[in-house]
Amino acid sequence: MQSELDQLRDMSVLVADTGSIAAIRTHRPVDCTTNPSLVLAAASDPALEPVIAREIAAGRAAGHSPAQVSEALTVAIGAEIAPLVPGRVSTEVEARLSFDTDASVARARAIIDAYAARGIGRDKVLIKLAATWEGIRAAEVLQRDGIDCNMTLIFALEQAVAAADAGAWLISPFVGRITDWHKKAAGRDSYPPAEDPGVLSVRRIHGYFKAHGIDTIVMAASFRTTDQIRALAGCDRLTISPKLIEELGQRHGAVTRQLPAPAPDPVDAITVDEPAFRWALAADAMANEKLAEGIRQFHADHQRLVDLVRASMRA
């Protein structure tokens, strides 16, 4: 029998949640991602040591700031990864810009230009933006310009619908973080897959999109267990850490397609304008808290990367 990983590949597009060259070569994902936390992890990857050393030396010689060098380094690593996957490399706009539409658009265009300077076309890149109202508006501008976007930190249906209405190419609902919040709130250690709040959130979003013919790709992310992954078999895309990819590759149980699931009742369309969006997040404690926390964590990782680059430039 095929491994569970290979069975999942027959149902969903698999994406590697890693910047490791070795992991990408081993697991053969269609897409991959770079963000400050993954770039930090990649700093210990022997295959990327020359790239990191080159970027730091070039930045030092040009008199660039550690922040500028960290931005260049993220793109440089993305450019190394891009030829290894048939699909896209998601590259993050800095979290501190999550509430500034114009600055997010400008930074996204700079990222695309930086990739182009390294011979990587925009058809190989996804711009990753936090799914704030301002981030979604930035995606709307960028998509009109032919720059495809990955809306991340999706915790509510209203975020997903607003992103799709803006023409976002892909959204990333965060399964594990949703479940983490509900476990803490309910004082539980775990949920069975059929009751897992993170799994149910993605199923709701996926079902809504399919019911209304929405083309935006749903990529479930932030998995904690292989049970969560199997419970979303058939989702458009699944982005999985190397650890969980390896576990799935070693298991040979039967994986049953879960999505798209038949909708028992018609799913009414919803309208998400700015007041509705902001109210939905204010009314949903989990979505409100996890979105803010995610932005803070992304920013903290970015600062850690800048600090690492600063120390390396001084060495």
What this model shows, in words?
The protein has 315 residues and is of the alpha/beta class. The chain has a single domain (4-314), classed as Aldolase class I (TIM Barrel). Helices cover 54% and strands 11% of the residues. It contains 14 helices and 8 strands. Strands 1-2-3-4-5-6-7-8 form an 8-stranded parallel beta barrel, surrounded by 9 helices. α7 (133-144) runs parallel beside α8 (157-165) and α9 packs across α10. It is globular and about 60 Å long. The model has no long low-confidence stretch (mean pLDDT 93).
Overall pLDDT metric: 93
State Rg: 19 Å
CATH architecture: Alpha-Beta Barrel
Categorize the overall geometry: globular
Question: Concise description?
Answer:
By secondary structure, the chain is α/β, with parallel strands linked by helices.
Notable characteristics:
TIM Barrel, eight-stranded parallel barrel, 8 strands, 54% helix
Topology readout:
Layout: H1 4-9, E1 13-16, H2 21-27, E2 31-34, H3 36-42, H4 49-62, H5 66-81, E3 89-92, H6 101-117, E4 125-130, H7 133-144, E5 149-154, H8 157-165, E6 170-173, H9 175-186, H10 197-211, E7 217-220, H11 226-230, E8 237-240, H12 242-250, H13 274-283, H14 285-314
Parallel strand pairs: 1-2, 1-8, 2-3, 3-4, 4-5, 5-6, 6-7, 7-8
Helix pairs in contact: 3-14, 4-5, 5-14, 6-7, 7-8, 9-10
